[in-house]
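>> received
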Amino acid sequence: MERPTPPAFLSLPPVADARTALVCDQPAWPYRSACAAGGGIAHLRVWWAGERGHVAIVTERGLGASTTNSAGEIWGELSTRFPGPLVVLEHWPAGDGDDHDRLDQVGLEGRRPTWRRIWPTAPANPDHDLCQAWMQAYGHDMLAASCPTA
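>> returned
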């Protein structure tokens, strides 16, 4: 049996200043979905990462189809709106049984979405040190800027 090739995730780019590099902030961003709900509402923030393109954080709001179930459609819409290299991160705030936020990078394998945990990562995760360093340098500031105010 042939093993599938792992998805190609872009490396996490530096974002010098989460406040000044922010190019899009939509607390009630509507997105389409192939799910029965037809779409949902998320908090969308996008930062310019220079020649490395854009970094988008899509925060789940619990309104309509989930960001996870709509990841393919979200990726497609954002890649059209922000051409060039794009890193899409799905953010689930604490709640619904989780006592902490989580952040996953969304990639596409063909047309099928796939995920890579960015934060928190277990020490045994091969990407742990890389993800921890990125979160310390950029990610925590970006998450703080991207949390909806309810």
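>> The helical segments are 71-81, 128-146.
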